[in-house]
Structure formats: C-alpha cells, structure tokens
Specification:
This protein has 323 residues and is an alpha/beta fold. The protein has 11 helices and 6 strands. It is globular, with a radius of gyration of 20 Å.
Amino acid sequence: MQMGGPRAPDEVEGYIERLFADKDLVQLPAPISWFQGSLAKRVAKRRGPKVRAQYEQIGGGSPNNATTMAQASGVEALLQEAGREDLRCFACMTYSEPMAAKALRKAQEAGCERILLLSLFPQFCRASTMASVNDVDRALIAQGKQAGNYGLIDRWGTHPEYLRLLAEATKETLDQAAAEAQAAGRHKPPTLVVSAHGVPESYVRKGDPYVDEVRASVRALQALLPPEQECILAFQSRVGPVKWVGPSTEETLIRLGDEGHQDLVVLPISFVNDHIETLYEIDIELGEEAMAHGVLGYHRVPAFNLAPEFLALLRDLILAKLP
C-alpha cells in the first residue's frame, strides 16, 4: 500500500481532490467536515496550476506508482524464489490507480483467497497507514466482502534491517558530502537533517503515534551512526493555517545556513520511494532555500526505491507474518 501520485499533468487536480476529500488524511472539525467534498474540489482547482508546475520540474508526474508496482513484482519474485509460489503481490494506491478496488479484482482473478496488507509507510500514521487500510475496507464492502478480513503489516520503523539500510545509505551520503567539501577546501563535517513528513499537532493530541514512532526510528538510527554524528529531526510538507508538528524542515535548513553550516545532508526518513516530496520539495525547493542562506554543499540520502536489499526486507516482513 502506498499513497500513489499523479502520473501525468492531467491527473494532478483529481489527485489533489482525492487527498483533501479523505477524512482520514485531512481531519477537519465539524461542521466544516460536512462540506469536505466540495471544499476539496475548490482546493484542487486553486492548487492545481502550482502543483502541476512542480511536477513538470520532476518529469511531469510522480514515479511513485510505477516504483510501487515494480516493487510488488520484485517482491513476488523473491517470495517465489523462497519457495512461496502460493503468494502473489499487487500494488495498491490510495489516491491514484491502481486503487484498492482494482488491486482486489486482480487478486481475485489470480485465484487469491486471502489478503495480507503491507504498508510502505515505515511508521504508523492514521493519515497514511490507516487511510490506506480504510480504503481497502471500503473496496471490500463495495465488492460484497467482509471488511477487516486480512492480515496487516502496519509499521516497521524500528526493524533492524530497515535501520541498517538507512544507516548504510546515510553514511555513504555523508562520506560523499564530506569528500566534496574537502575537495573544495571545507573541512567541517556535514550536518545531518532527518526530515519526516509532518502532521498537524491536533493529530498527535488525538493519540496518533506517528511522531513518537518517527522519533523512535531516529533514536535507533542515531545508535548506528558514528557517535559524533548528530541527527537533527525536522518535519516537512506543511499545508494550511493550522499548527503543525515542528520544527519545520525549511526553518531548520535556514537556521543551519544562517549559523554557518556550509554542508548539509537531508535524510527523508518516512519515505521509501521517490515522489514530489523528495524530488521537488527536498531536492529543489528546500535545496534552493538552503543555498540562499549560505549552504554550499547540499545532498539528499537516496530513497530505497528498487534497491535489492530493500525488496529483500519487504519479502522478510511478509514471510515473518505468514504461517
């Protein structure tokens, strides 16, 4: 399960509308929530041109759909190599095709009788993980089946192999940033900013465990990095006038630049695939902001995408869950 993304410019407004209409993702107070569908249409129309321009800078659409589908195929092949020919894997997006209804139909056509949901969000959040699960439930009910009748892998942010892969990729990027800085005559080690997708503070007050789970992932990651390497946690992608969990990634990068940190590495800890939050927000928008405040070397830790070791981790999560 993934959120998905618009595959082409003409899908942007529909994607935005589905995002803002989802009451799991965007939790508005009553009576405003009663009109959430019509408000989502207005938001999509207003934000559409700006967001389309952002997607144009990263190729015209999100690679998230294609990557997730390729991950499903790759994990299925690994499962079959492990002797589990009885298992099939299908990509399921929450806000773009293939959505839950189509994924379930494909599974049924393939002869599948039971379902295991695997969230590609390492840390559990109602606005991502639960939104995806609820979408599957709605599709099951629409097809005359029982909601909730499935296995579920809904969080793995402190899994040892996930942390090892994160630490390995982070150290490689830090080493690359340090080498480039030294070649340019800068000898201070790079500063590491760990960026997670933000949520409004109201979600946390309602008991959403996401921020605590992110912090647990960062603490565990910190233990795998050199003792002198600090992990500065920040949260990105704020939208709207409500108060979000902070500090924001943008404010953090600006502060570090103003304080004289010339080389920065950003680790997007809550994203396993590349999409607009990594390719545009971190790489372009926040990168330009950091450079404007004195940063000379700016790097991002790559997303896992189709890395073989990451696909093997997903395989192992599945095998550990199934009899």
